[in-house]
Structures are given as structure tokens and as C-alpha cells.
Specification:
The complex is a heterodimer of chains A (474) and B (314). Chain A has 474 residues and is of the alpha+beta class. Chain A has 14 helices and 21 strands. In chain A, the strands form 5 sheets. In chain A, strands 1-21-20-17-16 form a 5-stranded mixed sheet. Chain A has a 5-stranded mixed sheet with strand order 11-3-2-18-19, sandwiched between helices. In chain A, strands 5-4-9-10 form a 4-stranded parallel sheet, covered by helices on one side. The two termini of chain A are 29 Å apart. In chain B, helix 1 packs parallel to helix 8, helix 2 packs antiparallel against helix 8 and helix 12 packs antiparallel against helix 13. Helix content of chain B is 74%, strand content 0%. With 314 residues, chain B is mostly helical. Classes of the chains: A alpha+beta (474), B mainly alpha (314).
Chain lengths: 474, 314
């Protein structure tokens, strides 16, 4: 990853339109500028009317905010997608096998591939899961894998999200808006549909129901409640799947079986699609002060009377320290070379890496091992000397808590601005579903875009936006 | 459906209805207060009676002391301390709406959401007494829009019935309270009728439940106090009467029991109260004592709300 001109998804390195973008670019050239401005305004109206909002923590003023939407789609060719999707499937399969192993025989630790303390001292390690044989054998039913690229060759995984990945509602709404606003453009090419995501999700969740459940198991979506930042998505998915959106207080456990309180009395629940952190799931087992969870849920889970997706304890596989071992994990379980690359990562827990990181802070991105949402992160090249010094002290105090990566020349994709089209850095979060019956992937994902010129931070909590992602038919 | 969702729908409708009722109460106070002074030979304080009708006179006295138009408007429309202020009613309604988004149609959500946004703007700029009618109109229109969207767009299933139950419980409570505060001016047929001021009082009662014109259509005669009571208690064709509310309550509770295949205390209580209202005439009620009758009704109505909660909402 040597320094080079930034790769643009539309115009490559050399400014010539890439194949997948040809139709879009011709269309953009012929479209009057006012048209784009009008459509952008319409899109914003649509989002506001439907109330697609997200909450930003610590920002009481704007309890609900819109995620900025950019109207220029990001396009992947059929070939690009087929390589990417094979890589995603391979990676998520390996991560599921890894979790099954860690909470089972622990072959990978005995083989000396992963340092045991990375597992046992990990705050997301759940001893309660140990020795529990899941009926489906699946731990991660819904994964969101963050992908970036620096050229037209390789895809790099930036991060695995294996706990409660969010953003899929934006993926679906973005497509809906694009089809409404640009029917002529959408109709000019063969874009692979993604609308079946919700059906696939429901199918995946039903496939992991306990053996004892009826042929049509009852699925619920468990949300922390309407103050949660992803509440819109929770209600969106529950609504589209036609399942109840429950809070902890709507569920109770009797004789190790889970019920929800309905107007017709208690109703048995077979599968809980949980959007609550493990910590809060069951106050009897995890945080005793949790008011969000369901007392006895884990006992019911251990008794095999309910499935929880994703399984508690998946966080050990997606923290940033474990991340650097994922290529080894893929080789160990799949016996194959990983198709998707990892971004080179220095683990500050290792002495050599630590000194390298401290010496080169101004060129690196430093992340907290357990952080998410772009919080607790240092972007060296954009940080002041003072911030760097400050961060240095934090790293030295807890080196185990940090990893560092080179600042990637992330690819850009054009966005529509007041001054016309302008390139901005993007990433991509495809969603990988894994059920008892295999992996399901809808072609595409959520493209996040850093709206500020030059910025590399795409997180919606930090001013990032989203765009529609098109995968073309081969 | 989830009990919590049903509960949210029930209270969502109650709070929208409550906001509208409070707006009507304020509207009447405003009209009465701007009445020609010559009719005011009897010392009345319409702003005070608005507080009594809406509930919360004690809380008001503790917080404000003096009853002035500005204070009453502030307390009933915007006060955060008053759980039933119009502003708080819409806050609660919207909070509930957000938590049951998927059980609402988009039209209902938009009605609540845009009213809530409009109200926030009013709150921010502290309205003057003469701006009151415009503000109250906004509240009434929001309630109409919400109710109209519910009627026109919701599936006729349990979600719809729970939202209707909330509305009728709240409406019955309001009508009974409006009557009770004025029971002393509503007289049996043979009692001596007071002067001009009473006429305005009766008209105000009717206006507060938007029944002034309906009265003429039903009775074809000048305002008579016992007929005002008759209209608002016993006439099923009057949509805000106690009888009409209980007709609707029993009907929707029956819808629920058919759908669910069981019935319980809520159905029994609603039917009993409805029967009491349809088998009475207004002379009976005056003989028994209007105030006593209304107090009993309010207690029954509360009991029904509790029975619905126990049977379905928790």
C-alpha cells in the first residue's frame, strides 16, 4: 500500500470512467444541474417525512437527526461483487467456526495460533457460553463487515461487526429513494435487487430456532427502546418482517421458557433477534443493574428453549485486537488463503509494535480495541501535536487497549455538492446472514461516505452520510 | 398484539383527546371572559372554572397563586409541571407514537409529529391572550387530523379498537367533568330559571363540546338547562354524550372479545354502564341529583379504564 494517487470508484486512478460507471456518468453529463438539486431536496423531504432518524448520544439538542443522504450511487460490477461475496462468505464461516471452537474444544488455542489471554481477558468473553452446544451451531447470524479499497484490485476488511451491526435499514431505504427519484436512471441498467433482505433475515432467524419449536417459530426483535440510536432501524425491521418489536419488560421467563406479554395473554417466543448488548441481556447473569434485559433469558437459552441471534459472546471475535488474527483464523478453519485482506495492524500489546507506533503516531490511525462508532480513535495525519501527545500517554498507560494501522488512501466516490460533483472517501458495509441452512447475502451493502473534504471518518455519529450501492448483473 | 403496544395506543389516543378537550375548555373561558360586561352582574370567574374542569386547580394555586388569564393559559397549555397541559399531552402522545410506530399508519404518525413540531414553535414564543384562538384551533385541527387518519387508514383490528377505547374513555370523562363543574346552573324543569348569565353558561357548556348547533337540530327550541343535560348525557346521536361514548366502548370491547374468543370484566362493566345510561331519563337523574350521578359516572369510568388495563394492557 504505497502512497499513490487516490483511487476513485467512478474514474479510477487516471480519470477515465470505469466500466460499471459508464451509464451513470453519461447520464450525469446530460442531466441539468437544477435537476440534481431538486432531486436532492426531494430525497431530504422523503427522509424527514418518514422520520428516518438516528439519535446522537450526548447531543440533547438534536435528539433525532437525519443521516445525510447523497444521491450519487456507488456502483460495483458483477465481477467485483462475486469476488467480494466469496471473501465475505469465507470470512464469516471461519468466524462462526472460531466461536464454536472457542466456546467448545478450543483447538485453536491448543494449536498456539491465538494467545489465550486475548480470549480469556477479553471483556466480551462469556464463560456462560462455554460448553453450550447450540442447536444450530451458528453464533453470528447477522454480520456487518466493513470493507474499504485503495485500488481496483483488492478489498480490505477494516472491521468485523459481529455483535449488533446496524445500518441495513438505510441500505434498504436508500434504494427505495433512488427508485422513486431516479426511475429513468435506475431503469437504464441491470441493478441486482436487495429488497429480499428482510425475507432472508427472517428465514435465517427461523432456521436457527430450537429443535422443540413449532414448524413456524415465533421470532421477536429485542430493542433497548425508543431512545436507542438505532431505534428507527429496529422498528423498521420488525415491521417489515412482521414480528413484534419487544423491550425487555415485554418478555418474561417461566420454567426456562420465554414468553411475551400480549393482549391475549402470554405467548411463547422461540427466537430472539437481539439488538441489545450482551451486557444488558439478562441481569441474573450479566450486568445486575440492567433494566433493559430479561431475567432468566440465559437460563432459557442454556436449556435450549430459545435461540438468541447473535449469540452472546460473539464480541471476542470482532474486537480490534482479535481482528489482526482473522487471516490466521481463516487459514486454520477453512484450510484456504483468505480472499479478503486485512489492513496491516500493529498490536500495541507487543513491545516492537508499540515502539513503532509511538514513533510514527503522526502517520497512523490508532484505535481502541473495543471502541466503535469512530469514538476513541486518533487519525495521526489530521491530529494536532497536542492531541498526539495526549494520545501517546493513553496508549502507554494501557498498551493492550490499542492497535494501530497505516492511514489508508481510501477510495473516493463522487458526491453531489453545491459546487457540483466532488470526491469523498467511502467504505462499504455488506450484511452477511448465516442460518442453519447456509449463508445468505444480498448484493450490496451500506456505503458510508465522509462528507467533509479529505475526511476519512465515515461514521454517522461523526458527520458521515450514506449513498445507495448498486451491484450490476454480470 | 404486545400489551405494551396496546397500552401505548390506548394512551396515545387518550392524550390527543385530552389535548383537544383542554383546548375546548380554554376556548370557552376565553369567550366567556370576553362577554359584554353588562351580563356579568353575577361574579363569575371563567378562568377559574376552566381550571376546575380541566383538573389541577390545587396544583395551579400552589404554583401560581393568582388566577389571571395569562397564568391559566400558561398552566393549561404549556406548563411542564402540569402533566395534562396541552404541550405535555402532545409530548406524551408523540412519545407513545414513536414507540408504536409500526402499529400506526403513516398518516397518523404525521398528524402527531407535525402537531408536535408546531406546538414547540408556539411554546418557544410565549403567546399573548389574543393569540389564543389561533393556537387552540391548531390543537383542535391536530386532533381532528389524528382522529380522521385513524378512522380512514387503520386496519379494523385490535390496534384500532384499543386506540378507540382510549379516546372514548377520555371523552366520556371530559363530558362528565364539563357538566359537573356547571351542574349548579343545570336545573330541573320546574326550577326557576336564572337571568341572562345562565343562558351564556348553558351555551358555553354546549360550545365546549361543540354541540351548540346540534342542540337546535335535536330539540328545535330555546336552550333549556335540563335539555342541555339530556343531550350530553343520554342522547346517543350526540357524539360526545356519555351514552354515545359508552355505546362505542361496549361495541369495541365486544369486537375485541370476538377476536380473542374471551371476554371479561371490561366487557361486563361497559355493558352495565351503557345499560344504565340507556334506561334512564333526565328527570330520574335530576331526582337522584345531577352532581351525585356525575360523580358516580366518573368513578365508573375510571374503573372501566382500570379493568381494560388489567385485562389487556399489562
Amino acid at each position: 500500500m504505497a502512497a499513490q494517487a487516490i483511487f476513485d470508484e467512478m474514474s479510477g486512478h487516471d480519470g477515465r470512467s470505469r466500466d460499471a460507471y459508464r451509464i451513470l456518468q453519461d447520464w450525469l453529463r446530460s442531466a441539468p444541474p437544477q435537476l440534481l438539486e431538486h432531486r436532492r431536496e426531494e430525497a431530504e423531504l422523503f427522509f424527514r417525512r418518514v422520520g428516518i432518524t438516528f439519535a446522537v448520544y450526548g447531543n440533547a439538542e438534536a435528539e433525532e437527526r437525519l443521516i445525510p443522504f447523497d444521491i450519487i450511487p456507488r456502483i460495483l460490477s458483477g465481477q467485483e461483487w462475486s469476488r467480494l461475496s466469496r471473501g465475505l462468505e469465507q470470512r464469516v464461516k471461519a468466524l462462526n467456526l472460531f466461536l464454536k471452537d472457542i466456546y467448545g474444544p478450543r483447538d485453536i488455542l491448543r494449536a498456539g495460533i491465538i494467545p489465550p489471554e486475548l480470549v480469556y481477558l477479553n471483556p466480551y468473553y462469556r464463560p456462560q457460553m462455554h460448553g453450550l452446544s447450540l442447536n444450530s451451531g451458528i453464533y453470528v447470524q447477522v454480520a456487518g463487515i466493513d470493507i474499504v479499497r485503495v485500488d481496483d484490485q483488492d478489498f480490505y476488511v477494516l472491521e468485523d461487526n459481529l455483535r449488533t451491526p446496524s445500518g441495513v435499514s438505510y441500505m434498504l431505504e436508500n434504494r427505495e429513494v433512488m427508485m422513486r427519484l431516479f426511475p429513468e436512471l435506475v431503469g437504464m441498467q441491470r441493478i441486482r435487487p436487495i429488497e429480499n433482505y428482510v425475507d432472508e433475515l427472517l428465514g435465517t432467524l427461523k432456521s436457527v430456532a430450537p429443535a422443540s419449536s413449532p414448524w413456524d417459530p415465533t421470532v421477536v426483535l429485542l430493542t433497548p427502546g425508543s431512545l436507542n440510536s438505532a431505534y428507527y432501524e429496529h422498528s423498521f425491521l420488525a415491521d417489515r418482517m412482521g414480528v413484534e418489536l419487544v423491550e425487555g419488560r415485554d418478555l418474561f421467563v417461566r420454567d426456562d421458557m420465554v414468553y411475551m406479554r400480549t393482549t391475549e395473554g402470554p405467548k411463547r417466543v422461540d427466537v430472539v433477534y437481539s439488538r441489545i448488548d450482551d451486557d444488558f441481556l439478562d441481569p441474573l447473569v450479566f450486568r445486575p443493574d440492567s433494566a433493559l434485559g430479561v431475567p432468566g433469558l440465559i437460563a432459557a437459552y442454556r436449556a435450549g428453549n430459545v435461540a438468541i441471534a447473535n449469540a452472546p459472546g460473539t464480541g471476542i471475535a470482532d474486537d480490534k485486537a482479535m481482528y489482526s488474527y482473522v487471516p490466521d483464523i481463516v487459514r486454520f478453519y477453512m484450510g484456504e488463503e483468505p480472499i479478503l485482506k486485512n489492513v496491516p495492524t500493529w498490536r500495541c500489546r507487543e513491545q516492537d509494535s508499540l515502539s513503532y507506533v509511538l514513533d510514527n503516531l503522526h502517520e497512523l490511525v490508532v484505535k481502541e480495541v473495543n471502541g466503535s462508532g469512530g469514538y476513541g480513535m486518533l487519525v495521526g495525519p489530521h491530529a494536532t501535536k497536542e492531541t498526539c501527545e495526549h494520545f501517546k500517554a493513553r496508549i502507554l498507560a494501557h498498551p493492550d487497549n490499542y492497535i494501530a494501522q497505516p492511514t489508508l488512501a481510501l477510495s473516493t466516490s463522487p458526491i453531489f455538492t453545491e459546487k457540483g460533483l466532488a470526491p469523498r472517501h467511502v467504505d462499504l458495509r455488506p450484511f452477511v446472514l448465516t442460518g442453519r441452512d447456509g449463508v445468505r447475502l444480498v448484493p450490496g451493502g451500506l456505503t458510508r461516505v465522509a462528507l467533509t473534504e479529505g475526511s476519512l471518518v465515515v461514521n454517522s455519529s461523526q458527520g458521515g452520510g450514506t449513498k445507495d450501492t448498486w451491484v450490476l448483473s454480470e | 398484539m404486545l400489551s405494551r403496544d396496546a397500552d401505548s395506543l390506548f394512551w396515545l389516543s387518550r392524550y390527543v383527546e385530552r389535548a383537544e378537550n383542554t383546548a375546548r375548555i380554554l376556548d370557552v373561558a376565553y369567550r366567556m371572559a370576553s362577554m359584554p360586561i353588562s351580563y356579568n352582574d353575577v361574579e363569575t370567574n371563567e378562568w377559574e372554572s376552566a381550571l376546575i374542569t380541566a383538573g389541577g386547580i390545587d396544583q395551579f394555586r400552589a404554583a401560581y397563586g393568582e388566577v389571571t388569564p395569562e397564568n391559566v393559559i400558561e398552566f393549561l397549555a404549556f406548563s411542564e409541571a402540569n402533566a395534562s397541559s396541552i404541550q405535555n399531552s402532545f409530548d406524551t402522545a408523540r412519545h407513545n407514537a414513536r414507540s408504536v410506530r409500526s402499529a400506526l399508519t403513516s398518516e397518523m404518525w404525521e398528524a402527531i409529529n407535525s402537531a408536535w413540531l408546531d406546538l414547540r414553535r408556539y411554546k418557544a414564543r410565549k403567546i399573548k391572550v389574543e393569540d389564543l384562538p389561533r393556537f387552540l384551533n391548531l390543537v383542535k385541527e391536530a386532533s381532528l387530523r389524528y382522529d380522521g387518519s385513524a378512522m380512514r387508514t387503520m386496519l379494523r383490528n385490535d390496534a384500532y379498537w384499543f386506540s378507540r377505547l382510549g379516546l372514548y374513555i377520555e371523552r366520556a370523562d371530559n363530558t362528565a367533568r364539563v357538566l359537573d363543574v356547571k351542574y349548579h346552573v343545570l336545573l330541573p324543569q320546574d326550577a326557576p330559571v336564572g337571568g341572562g348569565i345562565d343562558y351564556y353558561q348553558w351555551a358555553a357548556i354546549l360550545r365546549s363540546v361543540s354541540a351548540l348547533v346540534s342542540y337546535q337540530w335535536v330539540y328545535h327550541q330555546n336552550l333549556r338547562p335540563w335539555l342541555v343535560a339530556d343531550l350530553l348525557i343520554l342522547r346517543e346521536e350526540m357524539p360526545r354524550s356519555l351514552a354515545a361514548c359508552y355505546g362505542a366502548l361496549s361495541r369495541h370491547l365486544d369486537d375485541l372479545s370476538h377476536r380473542y374468543g374471551t371476554s371479561g370484566a371490561a366487557q361486563r362493566q361497559a355493558r352495565a354502564t351503557h345499560a344504565r345510561l340507556t334506561n334512564r331519563n333526565i328527570e330520574d337523574i335530576f331526582q337522584h341529583g345531577l352532581h351525585e350521578f356525575l360523580q358516580e359516572f366518573l368513578a365508573d369510568n375510571n374503573r372501566l379504564s382500570l379493568a381494560i388495563t388489567n385485562q389487556y394492557l399489562c
